[in-house]
Amino acid sequence: MPIHDVGYRRWDGRAGSPRFRWAVIAGAGIRMVWRSHWLRRMLLFSWLPTAYLAFGLFVYEQALKRPTGQPALVAALRNLPNSDVAINALIADPAGSHHAVWSLMMLSFFRYSQGTLMVLLVGLIAPSLIARDFRSRAFLLYFSRPLSPLEYILGKAMVLWCYLAAITVLPAMALYVLSVLLSPDISVVAHTWDLPGRILVASAVLMIPTTALALCFSSMTTESRYAGFAWFSLWILGWAAYANLSKVGASRQWSMISLYHMLGRVQNWVFGMTENVNDVAPAATLLVIVTLGSLVILVSRVYAPMRM
Predict the structure, then answer these.
(1) Structural domain contains residue 14
(2) What span, in angstroms and rounded, lies between the C-alpha atoms of 67 and 237?
């Protein structure tokens, strides 16, 4: 049966801006990842620490009204790592300790519950983002369009940033707003106005190096399970090496072999739990090196098919 009228046809759609080509890749990746039931459970679970810490801040606000409850509050804060600044502020000036105590709570939120969830979330999403395209030759379809490799990388990175923001920025901002609402006096905003900015910076510290590294692993293989193995091995071995070596030497010295503890040292400085720049400079420098090195490998791997 003959086929007629197979020439060009009029397209009635609306062309998007060339500056947002990466958004098409990001949108498709976000929708595809959202199909995972494990991901949805993980996102739901990521909000549970918000309620726990909000209750802790509520107890803190109530303890400030009762001088007899402040020693118990100091004892409770001693159970949190890096709590010296908050404890000293609480002892010196209980009424003016909001910034230090809230910063400590935010740091604990990023370091422990969300830090662990970040490793699991990225390990669930990232390994297949680029490896699947290399295995299925989908990059041939991508780059047959007016799409640059950098736009392709940005689109893939936005998939991770979207879900990482959902477990870091959004819950932390909600925790801050909830803490303000639970406070007896709205003037607490004057003492903690910079915390939303610190939350954004701490989130960037968490998201940028981990995204670059995870996409680098994904680009180095066509099998996503190998990229996932490399990702989890890096975190588990780094943590285990730090835990064992810190028993025979200064823990701060050995934190440089663990990516998790390097992120913690930088976030510790972001939230003001340490003011010693020399203490955070080595960790920040290594994170920059890891990020730039991962980006160099990632860009070269994505550009490789274009040179064939």
Answers:
(1) no
(2) 46
Identity of the residue numbered 112: Y
> What is the distance between the alpha carbons of residues 227 and 130, in angstroms, rounded to a whole number?
10
Domain count, the chain: 1
Tokens describing residue 291: 């990020």
Which H or E run includes 266? Answer: helix 259-270
pLDDT score at 242: 82
Hunting for tokens 């046809």 — which residue is that?
9
d(CA 36, CA 214): 19
Mean pLDDT along residues 175-197: 84
Q: Determine the residue type at 229.
A: F
Q: In terms of Cα–Cα distance, which of 233, 258, 263, 236 is closest to 246?
A: 258
Tokens found for residue 136: 């299925």
User: Does any domain span residue 308?
Assistant: no
Angstrom CA distances, 263 to 104, 110, 239, 286, stand at 16, 10, 12, 10
CB 220, CB 300: distance < 8 Å: no
Rounded distance, CA 37 to CA 100, Å?
A: 38
Task: Report yes or no on 185 lying in a domain.
Answer: yes
Note whether residue 239 is domain-resident. yes
| Tokens 């400085």, located at residue | 269
For 125, the domain range is 19-303
Mean pLDDT of 38-47: 88
Q: What is the pLDDT of residue 245?
A: 78
Burial of 148 per CB tally in 10 Å (0-12, 13-18, 19+): middle
Query: Which is nearest to 175 in space by CA: 102, 115, 84?
Result: 102
CA atoms within 13 A on the CB side of 185: 12
pLDDT of 274 strictly over 70: yes
